[in-house]
Amino acid sequence: MNRHVAIFGCGNVGSSLAHVLVTRGMVSELTLVDADNGKAEGHALDLQDANIAFDGNVTIRANDTSAMLRADIIVVAIGPKVITSIDRLDEFNENSAGILELASKLKTVGFTGIVLNITNPCDVITQVLQEASGLPKSRVFGTGTSLDTLRLQRLLGNLLKVSPSDVHGFMGGEHGDSQFVVWSSVHVANRHINSWDIPQGAKDELERQVAHAATAIYNGKKCTEYGIAGITSKICEAIFDDSEKVFSVSVFDERAGCYISHPTQIMRSGLGMRFTLSLNEQEQIKFDGSAAIIRKFVNQ
Length: 300
Ligand SMILES: NC(=O)c1ccc[n+]([C@@H]2O[C@H](COP(=O)([O-])OP(=O)(O)OC[C@H]3O[C@@H](n4cnc5c(N)ncnc54)[C@H](O)[C@@H]3O)[C@@H](O)[C@H]2O)c1
Prior knowledge:
By secondary structure, this protein is of the alpha/beta class. It has 2 domains: about 5-140, Rossmann fold, CATH 3.40.50; about 145-300, L-2-Hydroxyisocaproate Dehydrogenase, Chain A, domain 2 (Alpha-Beta Complex). Helices cover about 45% and strands about 20% of the residues. The protein is built from 10 helices and 14 strands. Strands 3-2-1-4-5-6 form a 6-stranded parallel sheet, with helices on both faces. It has a 3-stranded antiparallel sheet with strand order 7-10-11. It binds nicotinamide-adenine-dinucleotide (NAD). The site of nicotinamide-adenine-dinucleotide has 29 residues, from helix 1 and helix 4. Catalyzes the reversible oxidation of malate to oxaloacetate.
């Protein structure tokens, strides 16, 4: 079966994703598009070399917009010329022009695939993309707090000295500073978090560390790419495999009136069943606060 991913924006994030998709043999076709033609071209040639090293059989193209619009999945990863702030909301104005241009192309051709957005502010940009393209909401979604959920697994696993894969939980709300741990539903090694006896202060500090994990990475290398590339590749895999695996992705929430993260099944046709978590009173206040931030940016 043909597995064609196009990446719109091939900077740190887009090129890292391209590398994972090629070297792990997850695609049969890869189309790279970037406003900087030379960058997309260079990555395509470099990846063609890697493809041979890994005995792959991937067709890799650069700057072919018509091919992008025929892809099964378009991953959106454009970014501003310079990321001057670590507040993701500050990127909105610069990124939205490129997003509206893409949306207009998707609308004109009647794009039939899935659009998976990474570009920040992730929830806001995903909503702008869906509204401007007119594509069904089931086929336009964002990576949301899927990356933050990996960070929750890492930090809580470290704290409790268990494997991150034994941490089951989700980060709720915005992919941004107002995100929160949905503590009421966290289980570690099949035990509810309340039975692990973690002091409230340690929980609060862990939540702060997850929400600001990007800052720690950004301070070291001025970008974050491998975590998001990893989880995005797994979402693409779930689409191609029609696996119905659940990820914390940014989806349209009718009650909140905006895109925001919920654990949702991913399948070949896009979004499947949504497993909205029942939140306690404090968590609901945090969720509503996050949704208000997203709505404010969408409506500005
Ligand atoms: N959602 C997440 O979890 C997550 C995680 C990490 C980064 N991000 C976001 O991903 C985005 C990309 O980050 P990065 O570090 O790769 O940035 P980057 O600056 O390295 O790359 C951005 C690329 O987009 C290209 N570009 C800009 N406008 C374009 C347009 N209109 N058409 C085509 N290409 C265009 C640029 O030429 C550049 O190559 C940012 O918005 C960043 O905040 C999101």
